[in-house]
Write a structure and sequence with these properties.
This protein is of the alpha+beta class. It is built from 7 helices and 16 strands. Pfam families: Lactamase_B (PF00753).
Length: 306
Amino acid sequence: MVAKRLNTQNAGWYRFLIGDFECTSLWDGYIHHGYEGIFPNADSEEMERLKAEYRLPQDFIPMDLNPVVVNMGDKLVLIDAGMGKYSDMFGETMGLLEENMAAAGLDPADVDIVLMTHLHPDHSFGLIKSDGSAVFPNAEVHVSRLDHEEWTDPANLDRNDHKKPWTEGTIQALKPYEGKIKLFELGEEVLPGVTTMSVVGHSSGQAAFIFESKGDQVVFTGDAAHHHIFDPIHPEWYFHMDFDTDPERGAQAKADIFERVCDDGILYHGYHFPFPGLGEIVPAGDGTYRWIGDQFTPRLSANRNR
């Protein structure tokens, strides 16, 4: 008998505790992104050195999509919605959020709130199914006022760059949530135990969400950083001149949040970091940082030294 190769892979789901909050990181897939345009102010020799030292792919950057569900006891909160199945604008390697929620024992209909770090396609298009209906029919969608203004601006529909299709898709993704979209100002507390931090730059209103329970903290950072090696070692590198609304401001926001998590002992979740995206940013003592990702473990424990 010849066994048929399946040629599929799925990181699935990963559960962890923050105080009394039960968190589940969920894999929506990954973006297969070439190096073209990435980190345009990077030194090419330094980038090649890091590729070699850390055994990174030579011709592409795999960026995972890691939405997270947080069970706060009284509310089920989702941070970002992935790319979903509504669009293949970024390729066909995404759209696994719903099946991985099911595998993790989570029902999209039970989600009370979706917190959006920002409204780029790989974060917001997963709000809807292929037919345009809501994936999370009972949820409110919370997004910063500034980000909502940028990505629902009708003026974008007359542009000739990426902002036109991205805005068209965002408007469509938000449509079934009309009347349930809640806007907040950066820096506000959006829920008891959940505060926001400005990481503006990649988009005009990008927010990070800091969850705290029983003295434990985790921050969900969206696209403040995109890569677990390049960004901590070189926070001054811009991500992409075409897709960052303000590249210089984005680099500064990245440095600011790295400094804050180190100073305050906050666990870091990188949306595009290797699944499950969870770990620690630690200072290297020379103004740079390193990423120490959590070891995947079957044990569910609130003890960070497990």
